[in-house]
Amino acid sequence: MSPKSAVNGAIGQPDQQNDTPTCDRPHLVDNLRAEEMQTQVLNTAKAQRMAEFFSLLGDANRLRLVSVLSNQELCVCDLAAALSMSESAVSHQLRALRALRLVSYRKVGRQVFYSLLDRHVLELYRAVAEHLDEEP
Asked: Which of 19, 69, 118, 136 has the greatest number of CB atoms lying within 10 Å of its CB?
């Protein structure tokens, strides 16, 4: 079987229903290239973990917490005041962020101070914020 033996459609005009380019005429698929690309596809387990990560960040209150923590470490009571949320609600959201290792904490007496766990979380937050601020 030749590397270009599979037939598929060529990219054509956008589909009228969703404006996504679709295949409208048959063309050959490069099977060697397709096999090479399969080695670069995200494995299912990691894709699942990443989906959970992004799903967790899909909550506006959690993103607001990350935005405040991107600037400084704060205790739960200060976070609650800054976000106009109850301490209980803030603690609940922080527990979820801690479960996926997005934030860390330290105790000083009876106070608990939270910060972003590492630079990766901060870089991701800033990259998304910058992307959304760009002109279309």
From this structure: 69
Question: Residue 82: what residue type?
Answer: A
Interior/surface letters 69-94, b for 16+ CB within 10 angstroms, e for the rest: beeeebbbebbbeebebeeeebeebb
What's the one-letter identity of residue 55? S
DSSP 8-class letter at 14? E
pLDDT at 59 over 60: yes
Q: How far apart are CA 117 and CA 97, in angstroms?
A: 10
CA distance 46 to 115: 25
Tell me if 57 sits within 8 A of 125, measured CB to CB.
Answer: no
CA 74 to chain centre: 24
pLDDT in tens, 12-44: 455 456 677 776 777 788 888 888 888 889 899
